[in-house]
Every structure is written in structure tokens, then in C-alpha cells.
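Wed. Picked up where I left off yesterday with AMMECR1 domain-containing protein. The coffee machine is broken again, so keeping this brief.
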Amino acid sequence: MSKALCSYAFDTLYTLLHGTSPTSLAKHFAVLQESLSDYPSSAPVFVTWNQSGRLRGCIGTFASEPIEKGVARYAVVAARQDTRFRPISKLDLNSELLVSVTLLDNFTHIDEWDDWTIGLNGLRISLDLEGSHYLGTFLPSVAEEEDWSKEDTLYYLLIKAELSGISQDRVVGFYKKGIKEGWLHLTRYDGLKLQLDFSQFLEVRKALQP
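Structure written out below (C-alpha cells, as returned):
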């Protein structure tokens, strides 16, 4: 599994906080003796930051972007502009900080609420209800990491989309009705997740120095 995309994400944030410029993605692949050709040139990408086992930021895009541009952009946006969390600063650059890069693929509209696999598929919900539009997603790793059932995942997906008022025991019926009537759209997708902690990044950074 590649470390290069994650070390590049770390490098982008690290150099921003220190007022320098990041090393190119190609150099990260070269130093780690990995092949950039093993990955698509463009893809939807999400970057996630965790510290001490807790989420510190997660933002990305479902639009396909050049890998280098997408990882660099969302490494910073997720670290510094996720309004749910305090921006990551120099003081947070320690061994407890971990970055994950997830490349998304194989988007499939599904007509059954349970036509997806925990740990394999991410979910995206889009629905229109009472004049309001709701949108939310969970990456493929989330349900497994949280030890959620499918019913749990769908319930928390509604909360993620900022839709309240649906009790957990009504969730399956709500999805069935919405899918059948066409006002709720559920999409599953695959995701390749790569991760690296700050200590590992520092080892890569040493190798990147001229």
C-alpha cells in the first residue's frame, strides 16, 4: 500500500505551517520507490486527519481532480478549514497526528437500502424533503471503524446530512419509502484508503532532503 500520497499530504500541510514549499508528488513516489502509474491520474479524493484517535478534519470532493492537486488542496482544507474542529497548527505536529487519503471509485446508484457492504463501500445520500435538500456521505472505513450495523450507519448518515426527526427504529422504513418514491437517492462507492502518521512522515522527509 502506498505511503507517497499520504506523505505528500503531510508535506503540504507541514510546509504551509513552516512557510516553505512542498516537494512534488513525483519525488515522494521516487523516494519511497513506489509507482505513480499504479494510481489514476485523476480521481475524487478525501483527506482525513486524526489525532489521538479522534477526528480532526475530513473534507474532499466527489468531482474527479488531478491527484497531486486534489491531495494538496484537501490536505490543507481538511486540516485548517473544517469548521467542526480547531485548525491544525504547528503545535499539533506530533506522533499522535495521522493522515488518511481516500481515492473514490465505482459509484453505483442503489435501489435497496442494504445493497452495500460494511468496510468495502462508502455511502452518499441525497434527498429532497419538505422543500429542503440534504446531502451527506460516509467513507468506506467509517461504519467498520465505528462498529456500526447497516441500520446504525443509515441513521447516522441522516444526522451527517443534518436531517433530524427520524428515530432510529424508523430508519429502514424511511429509506425504503424515499427510494421507492424517488425523493431519496442512495449511492455506494469504493474507496482506496491510505494512511501515515507524523513519525513516519518525518522519516520520509529526511529522505526527501537534498
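Quick read: DSSP finds seven helices and six strands in the chain.
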